Amino acid sequence: MQSNLVRKGLLLVLLVLAILTVRLVYQRQNPYTVEVFATTGGWGYSIVTNGKLLIHQPTIPGQPGIVGFASEDEAKRVGERVVEKIQKDKALPTLTNDELRQLGVKIP
Fold it and tell me: Which InterPro entries does this entry report, sorted A to Z (predicted)?
């Protein structure tokens, strides 16, 4: 009788530990994804959070005209930097020309 009670107690403890582990893993997941896409002028990126579009950036931010990123990789790097800024500042970020150059973007 007592061993049955011990088994149920251990099972309960294991169940609670499993639930806590799943919760911790879920909380650590990044809710933002960067999706890169081709445009007529090069490449752009979108930032999606929880299935909703947050930012759609078909051109190099802050630049005049309709000039996309030169490569898929450039657009991805800038999108990832924007996500970092959003997570840090909890606001929609801006990027300076210096930051874009640091990320390897050729400013026209």
Answer: DUF4907
Angle at 72 between CA 84 and CA 52, to 5 degrees: 50
pLDDT digits (tens, 9 = 90+) for 96-106: 999 999 999 98
Q: Would you give the DSSP letter of residue 66?
A: S
Find out whether 62 and 47 touch, Cβ atoms under 8 Å: no
Within 10 Å of residue 45's Cβ, how many Cβ atoms?
A: 25
What is the reported pTM? 0.71
Distance, CA of 12 to CA of 15 (rounded, Å)? 5
C-alpha to C-alpha distances, 22 to 18, 25, 26, 68, 94, nearest whole angstrom: 6, 5, 6, 40, 35
**Residue 98 region, left (φ>0) first, then alpha (ψ -120 to 50), else beta?**
alpha
